[in-house]
Here is the input.
Amino acid sequence: MTQGETNDFLRDIAELKKRERSSGLMNDRKRKTSNDDELIGAEKEDLKLLEEANFEDLCDEDKILVFCKKLLLEWKQELDAMENSERRTAIGKQMLATFNQCARYLTPLLHLCRNKVN
Here is the structure.
């Protein structure tokens, strides 16, 4: 299928299948270290804000940012806790693809909240 013929969810499923075939069996230790390396500056600042944040004292943009980031982090931790055998099932792949799609769709909102565009 071409880019216009598929939606994001199906593209994520296809990416998961490709990664599974190309990488073979990747152990959890390698997966966790590769995810830690992917943190960029903005994400590190967001994590710092999450840890230090008193929710009531934050401006509206920061409240949205903290709330969405906390939910995404909890969801990601839940998915990381899944066993590899569970990830390889159709339901596991669907859960991972849904997470990736949600994270990708929230990126513009989080970017606007970080920059506090008026």
